[in-house]
């Protein structure tokens, strides 16, 4: 996509601190890091959301994120992938964040607002989703 900043990075039109590149993925340091070593791994195939990317183009994302975590010495870290504005996706191109969590102040911080479970509704949802798999 012509206006996509990540597509421009892949094409070399916008500079990035590249960590890794293959036929299918490109990885680079985040320019607004949450911690030392915060990196992004992106598929070269443009798609806004995970379901827009063919499975074969996704295969290297997590292995590369793992290699970056190991290379930067991260002991605790988050692997994050958001889909859509409400889910906090700011760049409309699939990307995986590898965010080291060296202490309580640096890295990703978030809350987990768990809800009470209605088991009958949960079982109905289970059946609905499973039927579509």
Summarize the structure in short.
Helix content is 27%, strand content 17%. The protein is an alpha+beta fold and 133 residues long.
Q: Would you give an account of this structure?
A:
The protein is α+β, with helices and mostly antiparallel strands and 133 residues long. It is 27% helix and 17% strand. It has 4 helices and 5 strands, in the order H-E-E-E-H-H-E-E-H. The protein has helices spanning 5-11, 55-58, 61-71, 119-132; strands at 18-21, 25-29, 39-43, 77-80, 96-100. Strand 1 (18-21) and strand 2 form a beta hairpin. The protein starts with a helix and ends with a helix. The model has no long low-confidence stretch (mean pLDDT 96).
The largest pleated sheet is described as:
5 strands, antiparallel
The helix-and-strand class reads alpha+beta
Find the count of extended strands (DSSP E, 2+ residues).
Answer: 5
The poorly predicted ranges are none
Strand content: 15-25%
Whole-angstrom Rg: 17 Å
Order of helices and strands: HEEEHHEEH
Strand order of the largest sheet: 1-2-3-5-4
What percent of residues adopt helix (DSSP H or I)? 25-40%
Number of helices: 4
Distance between the termini: 30 Å
The whole-number mean of residue pLDDT values reads 96
Tell the overall outline: globular
Q: What is the topological layout?
A:
Layout: H1 5-11, E1 18-21, E2 25-29, E3 39-43, H2 55-58, H3 61-71, E4 77-80, E5 96-100, H4 119-132
Antiparallel strand pairs: 1-2, 2-3, 3-5, 4-5
């Amino acid at each position: 996509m012509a206006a996509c900043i990540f597509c421009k990075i892949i094409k070399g039109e916008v500079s990035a601190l590249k960590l890794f590149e293959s036929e299918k993925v490109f990885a680079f340091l985040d320019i607004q890091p949450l911690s030392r070593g915060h990196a992004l791994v992106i598929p070269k195939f443009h798609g806004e959301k995970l379901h827009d990317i063919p499975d074969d183009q996704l295969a290297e994302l997590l292995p590369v994120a793992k290699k970056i975590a190991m290379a930067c010495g991260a002991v605790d870290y988050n692997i994050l992938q958001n889909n859509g504005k409400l889910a906090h996706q700011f760049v409309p191109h699939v990307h995986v964040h590898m965010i080291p969590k060296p202490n309580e102040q640096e890295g990703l911080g978030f809350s987990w607002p768990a809800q009470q479970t209605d088991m009958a509704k949960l079982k109905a949802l289970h059946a609905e989703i499973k039927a579509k798999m």
